[in-house]
Amino acid sequence: MAAPAAPAHGGGDFGLVGALQQGGVIAWLTFAALVIMSVASWYVFFVKLIDQQKIIKEGRRARTSFWQSANLREAANKLDKNGAYRQIVDDGIIAQEQHTKLTDPIDQHDWMLGSLARSQGAIASKLSTGLALLATVGSTAPFVGLFGTVVGIYRALIKIGAAGQASIDTVAGPVGEALIMTALGLIVAVPAVMQYNWLMRRNKAIVEELARFANDVHGYMMSGGTVRPMTAAPARAAAGTTATRPAAGATTTGATAGQKA
């Protein structure tokens, strides 16, 4: 008795490899594009995550030790040389020095605010670098996968028509393999969208913290060092300097520290 004929798409032909073989060059190109998009999105994600962590750690150091220094230059040396917080302080010092060289008088407050705002804008722009790639991958990857699916189904239907068979077992294999491209597109797109939203939320929090720090630096420089943030009060109070050196912080700061005590 003759053995039953093997189906056109055996068990070893199903899956990703089978879909690529059935799809031909277009399927391979589509798959390669999705792989490149996935690798690029994960690379951007980890790079930006590391950059964010560096700024967050620098912010913690700024809150704990920066305002305990005798002057702004000494405090700046406690921060990372190429860090975001150090850049704000350095830009503020440079702007203060440049103000005296202006031939057309400008209010010092406005000049300092503009300089610090430009510094914050540069940092925010650097933080957002690469996020456009994540947004692009998240929005286009499903369509790239869908393109591979359409081409795969088209080729499968041509083969089915040439074979003259339209039974479910004949259609299911080629169509199912073609739909793998859609699944690949979603596998690439969904993580990219999640990465983009998460990094954007963290960027917003970092920028807000930088804005508060820049405002504190502005107040410190405009008051000659007598106005400091409220967070500096507990450390000075613990060192026993609040009562003996009221000029080192604002009057409200010392009052607040006394109430807490």
Explain how this protein is built.
This protein is mainly alpha-helical. It folds into 2 domains: 216 residues, no CATH class; 32 residues, no CATH class. It contains 8 helices and no strands. The N terminus and C terminus are likely disordered.
Instruction: Return Rg in Å.
Output: 31 Å
Q: Total number of β-strand segments?
A: 0
Number of domains: 2
pLDDT below 50 for ≥5 consecutive residues: which ranges? 1-12, 234-261
Number of helices: 8
| Spatial shape | rod-shaped
Distance from N terminus to C terminus (CA atoms, Å) equals 98 Å
- Could you spell the SSE succession in H and E letters? HHHHHHHH
| Mean pLDDT across all amino acids | 76
Structural class: mainly alpha
Beta-strand percentage? under 5%
Main sheet specs: none
Helix content: over 70%
What is the secondary structure topology, with strand pairs?
Layout: H1 16-65, H2 72-76, H3 84-99, H4 108-128, H5 131-163, H6 168-222, H7 232-238, H8 251-260
Helix pairs in contact: 1-5, 1-6, 3-4, 3-6, 4-6, 5-6, 7-8
Features of the shown structure:
261 residues, mainly alpha, 2 domains, 8 helices, rod-shaped, disordered N terminus
Give a short overview.
The protein is mostly helical.
